[in-house]
Design goal:
Blueprint (H helix, E strand, L loop, with lengths): L1 E5 L4 H12 L3 E5 L15 E3 L8 H8 L3 E4 L6 H6 L1 H22 L4 E7 L1 H4 L18 H20 L3 E6 L1 E3 L11 H11 L2 E5 L5 E2 L1 E3 H13 L5 E6 L5 E2 H12 L4 E5 L14 H6 L8 H16 L1
Parallel strand pairs: 1-2, 1-4, 2-3, 4-5, 5-6, 6-11, 7-10, 8-13
Antiparallel strand pairs: 9-12
Length: 310
């Protein structure tokens, strides 16, 4: 199948590209390279340096004969959305709607895979692990934008018969997250521990996250593409394990062979305290399950960051 991966030069997107290629799919990448790197994309894969709102977007579908879309291009920094919600809207809502207009009214796309969010979408949950039918009560513009994206996708599914799979990611980590800006917390922690620099924790470190290794998440996109049903499916893609920030730092210390220098800062408003998502539905509907434990994933990430540091 010919698949367009938006954001394919980015952290998660480039791993999705690799996973699709391993399965025999043909891949085209759209990325404005604002946070990703073209070096992340395997040689031979065509990259269009373009934003989602570009009027020339349609030409990619016409020229490349796109059959399916894995949509990952977005502003992904929750903290930045708190200070600049308008930029978040432009990228994550306006850009998405432009893409969907092309996918449904000009070209009949066979499957649309949407990268959503779990932790930011559910807000502070009443109970864990959180299932997909839990109340969606985001407390950040980033989470609100992702929820709006899901609602738009439901509209395009019902009115324009677009088959949709929504993947609500938990906290993703792994290689290639050393982006131009807004580097993930796990990567920053590892880089600083390796360099002997202090790491800053907002709050006391008892806040929890549900970490999932990037290669596991990439394969969920492959399985979503394989799904034969032409319905509207929403699943959590997570490690389904609640891990505190303090525990994560201890795991990093173990594999880095160095003690972390920890500093504490005030908790950031809009950030949730607990994140623990059930992945039972993904296991059932996609036959997906995480392959890498936190210990294994951190070990691989530490080795990767140590190697590029040299």
């Amino acid at each position: 199948m010919k698949v367009l991966v938006t954001g394919g030069a980015g952290f998660i997107g480039s791993h999705v590209v690799d996973a699709l290629l391993r399965e025999g799919h043909k891949v085209v990448v759209l990325d404005n390279v604002s946070s990703g790197h073209e070096k992340n994309v395997r040689t031979g894969v065509k990259v269009y340096r373009m934003s989602l709102s570009d009027p020339k977007l349609e030409t990619i579908f016409k020229k490349e004969k796109i059959e399916a879309v894995c949509h990952l291009a977005a502003k992904t920094n929750m903290r930045e959305s708190l200070t600049d919600p308008f930029a978040d809207i432009e990228s994550n809502i306006v850009g998405l709607v432009h893409l969907l207009e092309v996918c449904t009214k000009k070209y009949k796309i066979k499957k649309f895979i949407f990268s959503s969010t779990g932790g930011a979408l559910y807000g502070d949950p009443e109970s864990v692990p959180v299932k997909e039918n839990a109340p969606t009560q985001p407390i950040s513009p980033y989470g609100i934008g992702k929820l709006a994206g899901e609602r738009y996708l439901y509209y395009y599914h019902k009115v324009h018969a677009l088959p949709v799979v929504i993947l609500r990611y938990s906290n993703v980590y792994g290689p290639r997250n050393e982006r131009k800006k807004h580097v993930g917390a796990v990567t920053v922690f590892i880089q600083n521990v390796l360099a002997g620099k202090p790491i800053t924790i907002n709050g006391d470190g008892t806040q929890t996250r549900d970490f999932v290794y990037v290669e596991d998440l990439a394969y969920a996109n492959v399985l979503a593409l394989k799904r034969a049903k032409k319905d509207y499916l929403v699943v959590n893609v997570s490690g389904s394990k609640e891990t505190s920030v303090n525990e994560m730092i201890r795991t990093i210390e173990k594999h880095a062979g160095k003690k972390a220098i920890v500093k504490h800062a005030p908790k950031i408003r809009g950030e949730i305290m607990r994140s623990h998502l059930s992945n039972a539905k993904a296991r059932k509907e996609l036959r997906w399950q995480p392959k890498f434990s936190i210990n294994e994933g951190i070990k691989k990430t530490v080795r990767y960051l140590a190697s590029i540091k040299k």
